[in-house]
Amino acid sequence: MAAYVFDLPLPAVPVAGEATLYPVRRIFCVGRNYAGHAREMGSDPTREPPFYFTKPADALVAGGGTIPYPPGTTNLHHEVELVVALSKPVFRATAAEAAGAVFGHAVGLDLTRRDLQNQAKDKGRPWCLGKAFEFSAPISPIRRGSAPILAGEIVLTVNGEVRQHGDIADMIWPIPDVIAHLSQYYHLGLGDLIFTGTPEGVGPIIAGDTLVGRIAGVGELSVAITAAD
Ligand code: MN
Q1: Is residue 162 classed as helix, strand or coil in its secondary structure?
Q2: C-alpha torsion sign, points 61, 64, 67, 69
Q3: For 114-149, how does the pLDDT look when each residue is reduced to its tens digit (9 = 90+)?
Q4: What are 80-116's pLDDT values in tens digits?
Q5: How far apart are CA 62 and CA 222, in angstroms?
Q6: Contacts of 4 (CB under 8 A, 6+ apart)
Q7: Distance 17 CA to ligand 1 centre (A)
Q8: pTM of the model
Q9: How far away, in angstroms, is 2 Cα from ligand 1 center?
């Protein structure tokens, strides 16, 4: 077998309460999965099919911590999200089949360079610069559990002040539906994470801010933003 020309560790997320890591292959993200957030983004929240974007696996900041304010933006936004990790192959699945492919859940932040995302939207261009950048996917340890989380409080505070507050039950497309829909387009499986969208209340953050995301029954994620490097 050929040797790698250099070592490159695989991105991975700790499993809560265990000395184990969940290795990550891909990160899928759902756009506008809560009606309130769809409205604040200027969209009609009627139940059109979900849509997706991706982030590179090495955008993860496993366990949270300190990250620098990213380059190229003056409007970095927080989006707190329930993340689901998959446990087995799933392709062209029904929602019932998809519900059986859950490894566990985590609290994630879909950090967004909103100014760059909006410029891309205006020009009909891809969202990569707005969404898929370094340190753009902080994530808590994954709490193991094969039952899809369908309800529970989701909260984000910035410097102790509540900015986002919702309930997982308000998702337009719950976890089994999202996995089933996405599986019509990809052979999903082990190593795949899905960020399932954010409730309303997104807004800007700056260097010096501390973000804490919490989801009932899942866990907590803390991230501090430091000066741009
Ligand atoms: Mn998002």
Answers
A1: strand
A2: positive
A3: 999 999 999 999 999 999 999 999 999 999 999 999
A4: 999 999 999 999 999 999 999 999 999 999 999 999 9
A5: 11
A6: none
A7: 27
A8: 0.96
A9: 39
Residue 38 Cα to ligand 1 middle (Å):
11
Both tokens of 178, joined, read 């999202």
Kindly state the tokens that stand for 6. Answer: 């250099």
Structure token digits, residue 122: 């205006």
Structure tokens at 155: 């909260």
> Rounded to whole angstroms, what are the CA distances from 212 to 52, 103, 110, 171, 197?
25, 24, 13, 21, 17
Q: What tokens were used for 201?
A: 């209340």
Distance between CA atoms of 123 and 199, rounded to whole angstroms?
Answer: 26
Contact partners, residue 79, CB within 8 Å, separation at least 6? 37, 109, 110, 111, 112, 164, 198, 202
CA–centroid distance, 27 to ligand 1, in Å, is 12
Question: Which token pair is 112?
Answer: 């967004």
Cα-to-centroid distance, 196 and ligand 1 (Å): 7
50, two tokens: 């979900």
Tokens 């029904």 belong to which residue? 94
Q: Are residues 223 and 210 in contact, defined by beta-carbon separation less than 8 angstroms?
A: yes
CA nearest to 86, candidates 182, 198, 207 = 182
CA of 78 to the centre of ligand 1 (A): 9
> Helical H runs in 77-228?
95-98, 114-123, 128-131, 175-182
As a whole number of Å, the CA-based R_g of the chain is 17
Is the pLDDT score of 45 beyond 80?
A: no
Pinpoint the alpha helices (H) of the chain.
35-40, 95-98, 114-123, 128-131, 175-182
